[in-house]
Amino acid sequence: MILDQVGKPLALRESPTPEPRGCEVQLQVLACAVCRTDLHVVDGELPNPKLPLIIGHEIVGRVTRLGEQATLLSVGQRVGVPWLGWTDGECSYCRSGNENLCPRARFTGYTLDGGYAEFTVADERYCVSLPESYSDAEAAPLLCAGLIGYRSLVRAGDAKRLGIYGFGAAAHIIAQVAVHQGRSVFAFTRRGDHEAQKFARGLGAVWVGGSDERPPEELDAAIIFAPVGALVPAALAAVRKGAIVVCGGIHMSGIPSFPYDLLWGERTVCSIANLTRKDAADFMSIAPKVPVRTTTQPFRLEQANEALSQLRSGKLQGAAVLLPSQS
Ligand SMILES: [Zn+2]
Ligand SMILES: [Zn+2]
């Protein structure tokens, strides 16, 4: 599925099987989950994508060929390919454990070709080992919804009463981890979205409501996964003094101005940018212990635009997953 220009749906056309170079491996794509970031790329909301581009950054693949310098992986191995595809390893961010902020970083399905395809290539040093217990489709959403969600949860600190705004793919994974850690999850959905509210309750949320509602108690932290800037003041109004509001998405609509009172009391607002390889290793070791169960809706590769439009309309429960090898 190739994106020739932003603002257009993807076109399905034959692309040559990519050759692995250097530290890259060639992968047969077994599954690729569909992320809201894919919509932001297609819509042109993120600057300077590689064009033409194959999107998709939650790839489960089987190694089919090795580049001449690849030594870590072997042919036949199943691995995951996440959003972080390459970093320079030498800048001050990389050297201080913050490779997610590397100014020269390359990202799968944005500045590198991704997984809406039958084959792809990835730098083996950025591939993620996957827990055996997950099927290809079940593992795919762990690779972004899970990883970025987990980084957001870690940033929320030891908050006991945790608000989650936007109950999609990331929230459905992270709510399970939070409940497993003994936290109380307060789930905020679009007003009147009873399906999403039922889904959140089923995953252990102690309270569910519309994002315009105030929770029954003050929260210790909130994570915003919905790309809606108006949720920032809403979340600030719902948290206690000293609490943090974590914005987990890569893109958000403008944040409306709000009274300083909402920030007063040493409240913090922060964003989560990308992920590190350590986040991936940490999360993949925790996920099977919870155990995190992913709710997925399968699509064939040629249904990618349909999957994206269902995500856009909020119709999906859990995560859409493309299964190219079954097309
Ligand atoms: Zn760097
Ligand atoms: Zn993503």
Can you walk through the features of this model?
This protein is α/β, with parallel strands linked by helices and 327 residues long. The protein contains nine helices and 15 strands. Strands 1, 2, 3, 6, 7, 14 and 15 form a seven-stranded mixed sheet that branches. Strand 9, helix 6 and strand 10 form a beta-alpha-beta unit. Helix 4 packs across helix 5 and helix 4 crosses helix 8. It is globular. The mean pLDDT is 95.
Write the layout of secondary structure elements.
Layout: E1 24-33, H1 36-42, E2 59-66, E3 78-81, E4 84-86, H2 92-95, E5 106-107, E6 119-123, E7 128-129, H3 136-139, H4 145-155, E8 161-165, H5 169-180, E9 184-189, H6 194-202, E10 207-210, E11 219-224, H7 231-238, E12 239-247, E13 268-271, H8 277-286, E14 296-299, H9 304-312, E15 319-322
Parallel strand pairs: 8-9, 8-11, 9-10, 11-12, 12-13, 14-15
Antiparallel strand pairs: 1-2, 1-6, 1-15, 2-3, 3-7, 4-5
The protein binds zinc ion (2 copies).
Task: Quickly list its features.
23% strand, binds zinc ion, seven-stranded mixed sheet, six-stranded parallel sheet, 9 helices, alpha/beta, 327 residues, single chain
Low-confidence stretches: none
Helix content: 10-25%
Cofactors, ions and other ligands in the entry: zinc ion
Characterize the largest beta sheet: strand count, sense, and whether it forms a barrel. Answer: 7 strands, mixed
Strand content: 15-25%
| Radius of gyration of CA atoms, rounded to a whole number | 19 Å
Q: Tell me how many strands there are.
A: 15
